Structure formats: C-alpha cells, structure tokens
Amino acid sequence: MNLHLKEFNILDKILKWGDSQPAHQRQHIGTHIDCYNLTNIELPSEIETQIIDVRNIEVIDINVLDSISIKENSFIIFRTGYLEKYGYGSEEYFNSDTRPYLTNKIVDKLLDYNVKLIGIDLGGIQHGKDHVVIDKYVENNGAYVVENICNLDKVGLEFKANLNWIQLEGATAIQVEIETI
C-alpha cells in the first residue's frame, strides 16, 4: 500500500501553484520530508513504522505514548484523520487554526527514543510560525518530519515501510514515496 500522495490525488490549483514556484518550493506539495537546514538526508530504504491513532485529539501531547513501545531508529506516524476527512488541498485541511499539532514535549520524547522520522497526515506537526522552527529542531537532532501521509486507514498499526526519494540541491523539502512491505 502506498502512503504517499500521487499527483492525481492533488488538486489542479495546487499543482498550478507549484508550477509557478522554484523547484525547491514545489517539493513541498504532496508527501515530503522537510529539510530546512539542507542536510544530506541519509535514511535506510526500509524502516520499522508505527502508526499512532490520535483522531479527535487537538493537542497531541506526551500522554499518547503511555501504552506504546517506541522502537529506536523507527518511523512514527500520527494519524489525525484530517487527510481522510477533508482531502488534501481543501480549505479545512490547510486551516492551521483548527488542525491538531504535536507539543514540543512529545517531539522531545520521540527524539529521546532516537526515531528517524516523525510523520503526520497533515501539512506539518506544528503550524504557523512554529512550523519551520520545529522542523529545523527535529532535523538538528538527527531526525526529519514527513508531511501529508495518506492511506493510514488502509494499513495496520505496525509494519515495515520502503522509502524512495530524490534530494534536489537547495530544496527545503524532498518528495518521498512510502510503500508498505
């Protein structure tokens, strides 16, 4: 099962906007890894993946990890249900006033577990002025944020994923393909 948005899942108005942008900006459309510090991404092509269901939780805090065993060097994905409910590119999907977000405490806890990727079915793990700040923070601590992950309703809570990406020089995002194995 693919967990990345394919071009046919992306509204024409967003693709047209992307076509008018520099190549590095267009990479932020669809499923991508944020890399604002422009580090050379070095990740395994296969990674242990775990989905944490946080639907109907507005502020995603450390308590959601209470009964979960996090594996080192893994990929943790938060399923908010927003992409499923509203669709990628809708006004509701991009409205940062109503979208859930991860607290700094939960991000720090995941970094303490040495996760490699923190994913979400939204346009970011935090929003507004905090979006780029938290992405840089995660990157400075040896991990990356993956945004706009789809099809989380079609897979189990734990699986291995195959990652495929091409990093463009100077890009602050890398489009990534995520397939379950």
Automatic annotation (TrEMBL):
GO terms for biological process: L-tryptophan catabolic process to kynurenine. It holds the Pfam family Cyclase. Gene3D superfamilies: Putative cyclase (3.50.30.50). This is Cyclase. The lineage of its organism: Bacteria, Bacillati, Bacillota, Clostridia, Eubacteriales. InterPro entries: KFase/CYL, KFase_sf. Transmembrane segments: none annotated. It comes from the Bacteria. GO terms for molecular function: arylformamidase activity.
